Amino acid sequence: MTDRSPDVHAVLTQLLDETHEHVRAGNSETAQELVETGETVTKNELPDGPLRARLLHGWAELPSLVDHDPAVATEYLRSMRRLLDEHSK
């Protein structure tokens, strides 16, 4: 059983996927906005616990990576997506 609603999972999944697409396309301004939104959703909608802590860590690392190391940013996003998917099983 998961500790969040399917809607929250869907929103976070969409945010991670869209952020990934914008980072790969070089749209750093839009990617940064999505990172801020993802961090806010994570803070407001996920209960305290390891998933929330790990996702918040990822969102916090992304702003500098989006601008300075997009390849690493995309890996962070892939890892965060896998983590989210693993916790939805």
Keywords:
Four Helix Bundle (Hemerythrin (Met), subunit A); mainly alpha; 89 residues
Percent helix: over 70%
Strand content: under 5%
Please state the overall shape, judged from the principal axes of the Cα atoms. Answer: globular
User: Largest beta sheet, briefly?
Assistant: none
Write down the overall mean pLDDT: 93
The fold-level CATH name is Four Helix Bundle (Hemerythrin (Met), subunit A)
List the uncertain runs. Answer: none
Kindly report how far apart the N and C termini lie.
Answer: 7 Å
β-strand number: 0
Task: Report on the architecture of this protein.
The relative contact order is 0.18. The mean pLDDT is 93. The protein is mainly alpha-helical. The protein has helices spanning 6-25, 28-45, 50-68, 70-86. The chain is built from 4 helices and no strands. It has one domain (6-86): Up-down Bundle (Four Helix Bundle (Hemerythrin (Met), subunit A)). The protein is globular. Helices cover 83% and strands 0% of the residues. Helix 1 packs antiparallel against helix 2 (28-45).
